[in-house]
Amino acid sequence: MSKTMLAAAKTSTKPGIELITVPVPEISGEEVLVKVMASGLCGSDIHTYLWEETMHYKEKYLPLILGHEFSGEVVAVGEQVRTVKLGDHVLAKPSHPCGQCWFCRNNQPQNCTDRAICGTTKAGAFAEYCAIHEDQVVHMPEGMTWEQGAIVEPLGVGANCAIRSGLVYGDFVVISGPGPIGLTALLAARALGAGRIAVYGTSRDETRLALARELGADYTFMGDQCDIVQEVKNLTGGQGADVALECVGRSALLQTNLDLVRKLGTVCCAGVYSTPATFNLDDAVRNSKKIIGAYAGYSFERSVQWITGNNELAEKAVK
Question: Which of 79, 145, 188, 196 has the fewest CB atoms inside 10 Å of its own CB, making it the most exposed?
Fold first, then answer.
């Protein structure tokens, strides 16, 4: 193995990233070294590339190798590692909890306030190799492709959005954004028993909207060519959707989704916003509408099980 590797890193507070040569990570006794075989591009990576305001907290970690959705082969194992061996095919949970904060001590490590996060607070997977803690490792079942392994993280994010929304059997669900998170939220909403699902994007999303229909959407719309609120009202007898899953992160869409859900409806937001959002709180209050945040992913192990049982849909999703 070479002592150096190529990596795509955020190196300054200006827009852009650089391809740099860095040392291959050295691992601690509790870590493994993964040769990266597939890595996904997250919306937060794009926000970081553009150096939008909500990403400025990363400045103290620069230069920073990006990337947190990945799979690969284990090529080195720390002496204290017991559950991972050389040659294992694995995918990675992006973060490793501190084990000391209130959330960790109360069995909520996913909400840890001092997590080490690949591509955010520590070197990520836009590189030839990535070092992760043993606890971050999720073993890939036989037959799972590298690309499928890399979509487990976004699948968990989409599933988390659908689950946190509280949608129930038969609900009319609207999803804004046919990107990776929107499409994985669609898969989760269908698995949870949504009755009818509408997905909307823009005229630039024609291919992704076609994929949404392949993955189970009942209706797709180009929001820049129609009044999406009225379209949803027409489909629901004027009532509005039960649930809206906001998977884009565009500030204006928060109000749009509040407008298209019914009284007592729910808007669940998984998108990362580049600017503060404004909305009509009075309408939300008077109609008892709920706004819920959904950050990070649902169980990686359950997402692996979903892919294992739905391989054909998973293959479509990685396209």
Answer: 79
